[in-house]
Amino acid sequence: MTRLIVAAGGGGDAVAAAMLHAALYGDEVQAVILTYAWDRLLVDPLPGPRGADRFAGLEPVTQSVWSVPAEAQPIAPAGSTLPRLAAELPHTLALLDPHHGAEGITRQLEELVSHLAPASIDLLDVGGDILAQGDEPTLKSPLADALTLAACCQVNAPVRLLVAGPGLDGEISADDLRPLLGNLVHTFTAEDVETIGSILEWHPSEATAMLAATARGARGICEVRDAGLPVPLTDEGPAVHEVDLDDAVSRNSLARAIMMTATLDEAEAYSREICGFSEIDYERNKAAWLKDQPPVPLTREVVFSQLDRFQADARVRGITHTTFRHLTEALSLNGSQRDELRRILITSRPDQYDAPLWNIRA
Fold first, then answer.
1. 41 near 283, Cβ under 8 Å?
2. 159 Cβ partners below 8 Å, 6+ apart?
3. Residue 5 in contact with residue 31, Cβ under 8 Å?
4. How many CA atoms lie within 13 A of 228 on its CB side?
5. At 148, which helix (H) or strand (E)?
6. Given Cys at both, which of 51, 106, 146, 205 links 254, Cβ 3.0 to 4.6 Å?
7. Could you tell me if 149 and 129 are in contact, meaning their C-beta atoms sit under 8 angstroms apart?
8. How far apart are CA 321 and CA 238, in angstroms?
């Protein structure tokens, strides 16, 4: 018996899927987690998601589905967190490939359902932007979620849509999401976080980091992303709600539009038309800009001088926490310096480490 969990947006959703599996299903079975290889530019300098052709060492599961074992490697210059994640999780990570549009993802799901006969299928989104209409001014990354939603609603099998940490991705507020949420399925606890605690020490996901932090009791306002979005850390943060799949599709205009797409380019064109932008275009522009940025020396003197100024300004804005990803960019450092920055800060000021976030108030 196997559980199938689809990580709606890839990245940290796959980490949250492992925590969800442990909380809801315990050790009864292991899961197959279907997830994108779509990492932030600090991990993968190439814009957009990676397909199976950009990995070495994948293992076939079905005709169009490949698993990512710990031994797999992205083909340079691509990067990916999935092999390391596979090494640290007891689950099978299967590669969700959007390059054949929603039709391709639907085909992958149908093959997996036929091959695995899973006991359940959960579509998990951390934050709730899968419920976006498409015209929200704060929306940043609708395409990945819309593709998985469009595919899941076409599979001939029951799929349960779950939203964890409403509002934690900084794209749609918890206030706006609250009327759309169904039954409370689970509230994550500090004990639940222990199943992924070591992964959050290195994984760059911000939304799942805040999900874990709220489960451990962190409260306040966390500043995230390169844009410095303020995200409230509240008692709603650790909650997991069920949402009616049909209602989500009715609300998500991009998901409805891309159901018959056969390429990622088609889906991206619909995103530009409906939402006014494509997140892959944003990544393309940012990647080009980052290539021209000279490296900044990472010294303790430079770090703490800039950090103190950042924290003083952040306190004025009412910010209590931030992520190491945001700190890296706020201090004008290269994404590759994130791990070293994190090491310097935690060893020098351990009282400010509110795992896995940085506490500005401490």
1. yes
2. 6, 121, 122, 123, 152, 153, 245
3. yes
4. 12
5. helix 142-152
6. 146
7. no
8. 16
97 by Cβ neighbours in 10 Å (0-12 / 13-18 / 19+) ranks as buried
Give the whole-angstrom CA distance, residue 59 versus residue 69: 7
- Give yes or no for a contact between 141 and 277, defined as CB atoms under 8 angstroms apart: no
Q: Is 124 left (phi over 0), alpha (psi -120 to 50) or beta?
A: beta
User: In sequence order, which residues have a C-beta less than 8 Å from that of residue 323 and are 6 or more positions away?
Assistant: 206, 209, 210, 222, 223, 224, 357, 358
Amino acid at 55: F
Burial of 74 from C-beta contacts in 10 A (0-12 / 13-18 / 19+): buried
pLDDT digits (tens), the chain, 362 positions: 799 999 999 999 999 999 999 999 987 778 999 999 999 888 899 999 999 999 999 999 999 999 999 999 999 999 999 999 999 999 999 999 999 999 999 999 999 999 999 999 999 999 999 999 999 999 999 999 999 999 999 999 999 999 999 999 999 999 999 999 999 999 999 999 999 999 999 999 999 999 999 999 999 999 998 888 999 999 999 999 999 999 999 999 999 999 999 999 999 999 999 999 999 999 999 998 887 777 777 888 889 999 999 999 999 999 999 999 999 989 988 778 899 999 999 999 999 999 999 999 76
354: burial class by Cβ within 10 Å (0-12, 13-18, 19+)? buried
* Whole-number Å distance between alpha carbons of 239 and 297: 41
